[in-house]
Amino acid sequence: SQAVIRSRLSVSLLPDFLNPDVKLCDGQQGPVSCFVIQMCVQVSGHRIPQQTALRVELQLDRMKQPTTRRTLLLLTNQPQETSTLLVQREEGVACTNRTAYLRSEEEVQDKLSPIFITVNISLLNTTQHALLHGQTHAAAQTRIILDCGEDNVCVPDLKLDAVLLSDSVLVGEDQSVVLSVSAENDGEGAYETELVVQIPKHTHFQSSQGVNRLVCVQRKENQTVVVTCDLGNPMRQGHKLHTDLVFSVGHLEEVESHITFNLRIRSKNSVNSSSNEITVDVQVKAEARLQIRGGSSPPEVVLPLPDWQPAMHPGSLEEIGPLVEHVYELRNQGPGAVNARMTVDFPSTWRHHFLLYVFSNAAEESLNCRTLNASQIDPFQ
């Protein structure tokens, strides 16, 4: 038969809150804020072994991924440990302590959520003919002390303002949209604070300029393209900043009247976590400078023509009269593309007689010419 070892497991932390400003232990990189983890196991039962050998698995900040855990063991700089604990039958209880520390403020992103410390125990193979029954798992939690008053709950008051340095953009012109952004926190500390800018299609973030240059990233959130900029962790009470966000815009010829930017500040705080939302419309305008020039070949015709008689039934252009050719050059100097129409007025009669006849119009891929009221001015068509 096997002996049944009844177990009770407890874990306690001292102190039970972590103060980043109180650094009583020496780490590899200097003083650190530390705490003691005490693990105790109590065993009892009928005919249990003289010595119970247990495997103890300790996990720090269990809810986080290993690379982002906020607390580490002081001796190993690791977030977990497996050790052996021996409990003597006469004593019935054994405890072991470990010292852990809080990583530096720059390394800790999440300062709000609790830090869970978990312990699991199991029998080692050296303890034969026995079963472990009872409590084999225990957990404790601690938090980082914040500058948030007695309740340790930060309530920020985030405010945002944004204006355009230029209220419009031109179709076809290589230009940027510049948003002048001001942000401040009039409340308690705001943690993992970000400026979030929802941008229009075919828009790309270029840079942050001015007094405060922010680190910004363009990415997709829920099928929407946004730019997020780090404002601080925490963004402390009374902190103000100002920056100019520069964006490039494209495909403006597809826009009817304007493009829209939506801005807000968000944080991971549980209360009053966001700012007011700002909507900025940028007007899209089309402008073009057109230039026209032309010439006539020949430059002049003197009438009446000497020694010339009209033919009753002309068979060629020469029998109608001398050929006059007009050549026009229309140039768009930009910046935008336009649909343009050029109208050429010419004298078709003189003293109730036909003067100029239109025999042909230019025809190109992007050009379409026609003569209005052609039947009235071209009797030979």
From TrEMBL:
Gene Ontology CC annotation, any one: external side of plasma membrane
Stretches assigned to the Integrin alpha third immunoglobulin-like domain: 290-376
MF (Gene Ontology): integrin binding; metal ion binding
Domain named Integrin alpha second immunoglobulin-like: residues: 148-284
Residues covered by the Integrin alpha first immunoglubulin-like domain: 1-127
A Pfam family hit: Integrin_A_Ig_3
Taxonomic superkingdom: Eukaryota
UniProt topology in membrane: Single-pass type I membrane protein
Stretches assigned to coiled coil: none
Key words, A-Z: Calcium, Cell adhesion, Disulfide bond, Glycoprotein, Integrin, Membrane, Metal-binding, Receptor, Transmembrane, Transmembrane helix
Protein name per Swiss-Prot or TrEMBL: LOW QUALITY PROTEIN: integrin alpha-IIb, partial
Source organism of this protein record: Scomber scombrus (Atlantic mackerel)
